[in-house]
Amino acid sequence: MCYVFAMARAILEREFPYYRRLDATRRDKLVADLDVFARKELLGLDGLVITERMRVLVAATAALLVLELDIALFDHVVRVELRPSEYAADGSIAAGHYAWSEREGSGVVQLSWRHVIDGLALPDGMHVGIHELAHALDHGLGGKLLVDHERCDHWRRSLDEFPLRREREGRFMVTHVVPDVAGPELFAVASELFFERPMTVLRIDPVLFEELQRIYRLDPRMFW
Questions:
Q1: CA distances (Å), 215 to each of 2, 20, 56, 68, in order?
Q2: Which residue among 21, 100, 144, 216 has its CA within the 20 to 30 Å range from the CA of 73?
Q3: Which residues contact 191 (CB under 8 A, 6 or more apart)?
Q4: Could you tell me if 56 and 4 are in contact, meaning their C-beta atoms sit under 8 angstroms apart?
Q5: What b-and-e string marks burial along 36-46, b requiring 16 or more CB atoms within 10 Å of the CB?
Q6: Neighbouring residues of 10: CB distance < 8 A, sequence distance ≥ 6
Q7: Contacting residues for 207 by C-beta, under 8 A, at least 6 apart
Q8: In terms of C-beta density within 10 A (0-12 exposed, 13-18 middle, 19 or more buried), how is residue 181 classed?
């Protein structure tokens, strides 16, 4: 039996909402790709102890992005680094990052586990797993996704500081917005919305929705 097949499906049924909405053929494809990605090094940092649940849910997110593509598009990713929560990076606080080393010819995905779980729990367009793995996928597909499109500037203007979620923090209501759409951030941000809020992408611009459909070769409305 392939790696994690025995336990993966139970975890996916319980905690990965996309899986529950797939037909049998696509479920098998996602689990097979999950198995491939799960063999990569998953490194726990800042005291985090890696569990099979973590391995399955991170790998499932990667498999989701290539549901109609090839998992080999992530071959350049050699390691995923997982931290308990936000962490300091380059003088700011981060929930994730994709890093490419020209010298080593490999990529590393960095994620906050708390934000991975939050992203799965609430489909609001804030999903750090989709975001950082979309950066890695962009790299695997040449690093130019969306940025060379004639409507790129329009999409940047539409998504810049786009409101995602309001929540109470202490005595105040805080609105979370898209923080950055420069360079490759455009594709990563658009991917989060495409999978979690496809109708929002359609309202922003049907051409953007069609372009993401062309890239991912699927219609995310099937998940909702």
A1: 29, 23, 25, 10
A2: 21
A3: 65, 130, 131, 134, 212
A4: yes
A5: bbbebebebee
A6: none
A7: 151
A8: buried
Tell me which residue of 202, 204, 206, 208 sits closest to 150, measured CA to CA: 208
- For residue 165, give the nearest of 156, 177, 153 by alpha carbon: 177
CB atoms near residue 121 (< 10 Å): 11
**Tens place of pLDDT for every residue, the chain, 224 residues?**
454 567 899 999 999 999 999 999 999 999 999 999 999 999 999 999 999 999 999 999 999 999 999 999 999 999 999 999 999 887 788 999 999 988 888 999 999 999 999 999 999 999 999 999 999 999 999 999 999 999 999 999 999 999 998 888 778 888 989 988 999 999 999 999 999 999 999 999 999 999 999 999 999 999 98
Domains of the chain: 8-223 (1.10.472.150)
Q: What is the CA radius of gyration of the chain?
A: 17
**For residue 195, what are its two tokens?**
């999978």
φ and ψ at 46, to 5 degrees?
55, 35
Spatial separation of the C-alpha atoms in residues 113 and 197, rounded to whole Å: 22
Taking the C-alpha atoms of residue 51 and residue 111, their distance in angstroms, rounded to an integer, is 15
CB of 39 closer than 8 Å to CB of 3: yes
Output the pLDDT for position 4: 52
Token reading at 59: 């790998």
User: Under a CB-based contact definition with an 8 Å cutoff, are residues 142 and 73 in contact?
Assistant: no
